[in-house]
Amino acid sequence: MAKIIYVSFRNTVPGSLEEKLLKICKKLEPDNITANEPKIALDGDIAHAIINPVSTIEVKDNSILM
Asked: How do residues 23-33 score in pLDDT, each as one tens digit?
């Protein structure tokens, strides 16, 4: 099952956020399966990370359909 972290900032996204989101994703991955590689996107003042993404998840701009 996929999970999401969605972050909104007042200003632009900090540069180090991608690395931090990846670390969080790795800690939240299930330990009983081999999870898919997380999808991380930074765009202006929005950042999101999808943990264990599957093909049915749709992403358009900053909107995500799970």
From this structure: 999 999 988 99
pTM of the model: 0.84
45 near 11, Cβ under 8 Å?
A: yes
pLDDT value at residue 7: 92
* CA 13/CA 20 separation, integer angstroms: 12
Question: CA 23, 25, 30, 36 torsion: positive or negative?
Answer: negative
52 φψ region: left (φ > 0), alpha (ψ -120 to 50), beta (else): left
HEC profile of 2-54: CEEEEEECCCCCCCCHHHHHHHHHHHHCCCCCCCCCCEEEEECCEEEEEECCC
